[in-house]
Write a structure and sequence with these properties.
Elements (H helix, E strand, L loop, with lengths): L3 E3 L11 E5 L2 E6 L4 E2 L1 E7 L6 E7 L15 E10 L2 E11 L6 E9 L10 E3 L7 E5 L2 E7 L6 E7 L2 E10 L8 E8 L2 E8 L7 E7 L7 E2 L6 E2 L9 E10 L5 E8 L13 H7 L7 E10 L2 E3 L8 E3 L14 E2 L11 E3 L8 E2 L7 E4 L12 E5 L4 E9 L7 E10 L2 E10 L2 E10 L2 E9 L3 E9 L2 E7 L4 E3 L4 E2 L5 H4 L1 E3 L2 E4 L6 E8 L6 E11 L2
Antiparallel strand pairs: 1-24, 2-3, 3-5, 4-26, 5-6, 7-8, 8-9, 9-10, 11-12, 12-13, 13-14, 15-16, 16-17, 17-18, 17-19, 20-21, 21-22, 22-23, 25-42, 26-29, 27-28, 28-42, 29-41, 30-35, 30-42, 31-32, 31-41, 32-33, 33-34, 35-36, 36-37, 36-38, 39-40
Length: 530
């Protein structure tokens, strides 16, 4: 048994963790935003080793992300278990900008974590980050009130609200109070909330009450966890957590955190706001864990700070088989590492059988299209690593492209692509930085080649192999435009886009006229390095 857990436990884009223990099994759900399948699920038996089970919402019946904005879609799932069933509550944001939020909260349930999951039903609520609390056969719905005006609770019978909601907590010291979870320990009710927004001012607080409906008192010692006053730590943005206990009564908090790329050359910024302007988190918001001790009736974390290593629970070690870095597309279904953008994987545009041992992508919309893109991607999980793929593709028109990408959102990506130019297949390197497009032609290529993107901290390097040895491109690109901070697009008084996800590497194909153009990928490999 290992003595420590190394953080983050889920590297790369895995925010808003919600954890539940059922017997000896720990299940953890994370936000997926515009990516399919929705609500990514993870499994552990020792809180140290985790395996990815894939997404719960894996069909249009369970989730429709057509047209959602970048960093819209699925926000802050809440996973609980009661009365012999798993309960999953999640928010879907169709819009969050320009002064309005089009948000709906949904509930789906299943007897087994593997499903089948029931048709989602819409829940009442005027905000996002909804969650459930179960006690003595009753179910209560917690809601963050739109505009961050507090946290309220309301009794549910099925999916119907009973009576009027009760305000549990109006605000918190850092403001922007959200992400509520409720627990009962001994004779106290404990309300855990995120505060301070999801940037470098983020944190989590606890309030308690003897009565379910309050009043609630915030822990006078301060946040349960935060890094806003510890800007030199390697783990930043700590907050939005969820508590869980082991069978032996040990307590842990899973929470989101980030690892900034940008070096601070002139000393530490004095405030979290200044850090927001300098630190770029290409890996997005990740999931970490902290050991919790109970002191004077309050849950506490040493120093209220995130740490790279924390004491492991007294549980037998349970490692999972290490997945291969390489996917040869021999399985009948996509491996859980893969995600698709805004539309679910289905035979209308994706096939693992049309060309055996290949992934065939029928070209979709342009990189700015939000209805039918053809992008299959996986999370970037380390600052250093190499993504490589084999491509067989012959474009028939100038509206057809295919290749590999380092991607954040529609406005920020790098694309090593093959396209038809002057009657020939040309390899090009295309970058879009906040919508500004740079297109560099590299060389004419044949119908089969290998492509490579290497992450070297803040620098991206590219190479290709066309019937011979690898050729390194002299052109380098900035990896940090694939970051939460760079993707967040705010003008004075006007929000265009949030950056809530993280960098991906993937396989991409376009056919803007929808004339049946396709690309075959015979393998893809993503290997991280120290």
């Amino acid at each position: 048994m290992s003595d420590v857990i190394s953080n983050p436990i889920l590297p790369g884009f895995h925010p808003d963790p919600s954890i539940v223990r059922v017997g000896e099994d720990y299940f953890l759900a994370t936000s997926t935003f515009e990516w399919c399948p929705g609500i990514r699920l993870h499994h552990s038996r020792d809180l140290r080793h985790w395996r990815t089970l894939g997404g719960i919402a894996d069909s249009p019946r369970l989730l429709d992300l057509t047209g959602v904005p970048d960093s819209g879609g699925v926000w802050a799932p809440d996973l609980t278990y009661a009365n012999g069933r798993f309960h999953l509550v999640f928010s879907v944001l169709d819009n969050y900008a320009y002064g309005y939020k089009d948000c709906a909260n949904y509930l789906t349930t299943a007897e087994s974590i593997d499903g089948p999951w029931t048709d989602p039903v819409r829940l009442p609520g005027r905000g996002f980050d909804a969650a459930l609390y179960h006690e003595d056969g009753a179910t209560w719905l917690l809601n963050m009130i739109s505009g961050f005006k507090g946290v309220e609770i309301q009794r549910l019978e099925g999916d119907k609200a009973v009576g009027e909601p009760t305000l549990l907590l109006e605000t918190s010291p850092a403001g922007i109070t959200e992400g509520p979870h409720l627990y009962k320990v001994d004779d106290w009710y404990y309300l855990l909330c995120a505060e301070g927004g999801t940037g470098f001012n983020h944190g989590a607080i606890v309030a308690r009450s003897r009565n379910l409906l309050g009043p609630y008192e915030i822990d006078p010692s301060g946040p349960l966890i935060t890094s806003r006053d510890k800007l030199d730590l390697p783990l930043q943005k700590a907050g939005h957590g969820c508590l869980v206990s082991t069978p032996a009564g040990e307590w842990y908090l899973t929470y989101l955190t980030s690892r900034p790329y940008t070096e601070i050359e002139d000393g530490l910024p004095e405030t979290a706001r200044e850090r927001d302007a300098t630190g770029r988190c290409v890996l997005g918001r990740e999931t970490a864990v902290a050991a919790v001790a109970w002191t004077d009736g309050w849950p506490r974390i040493p120093g209220a700070a995130p740490a790279l290593e924390v004491p492991a629970p007294d549980l037998p070690a349970h490692p999972w088989p290490e997945p291969s870095a390489r996917d040869d597309f021999d399985a009948p279904h996509l491996d859980p590492r893969w995600n698709t953008l805004r539309r679910h994987a289905d035979p209308s545009w994706l096939s693992l059988t049309a060309h055996p041992s290949h992934l065939r992508l029928t070209g979709g919309q342009s990189p700015f299209g939000k209805r039918t893109p053809s992008l299959v991607a996986q999370r970037v999980t380390a600052k250093h690593g190499v993504f490589e793929a084999g491509l067989a593709f012959t474009p028939d028109t100038e509206q057809q492209n295919a290749g590999i990408t380092a991607y954040y959102n529609a406005f920020n990506w790098h694309y090593l692509q093959v396209s038809l130019e002057d009657g020939e297949s040309w390899l090009s390197l295309v970058t879009t930085d906040r919508g500004r497009r740079d297109h560099t032609r590299i060389a004419p290529v044949g119908p089969r080649l290998d492509l490579r993107i290497a992450f070297d901290g803040p620098t991206l390097r590219f190479a290709y192999r066309d019937n011979g040895n690898w050729t390194a491109l002299e052109h380098e690109r900035d990896a940090t435009i694939l970051s939460d901070e760079h993707a967040t697009w705010v003008e004075p008084g006007l929000l265009h886009a949030f950056g809530f996800t993280g960098a991906f590497v993937g396989l991409w194909a376009q056919d803007l006229a929808a004339e049946g153009g396709y690309a075959d990928f015979d393998y893809a490999s993503y290997q991280t390095t120290p």
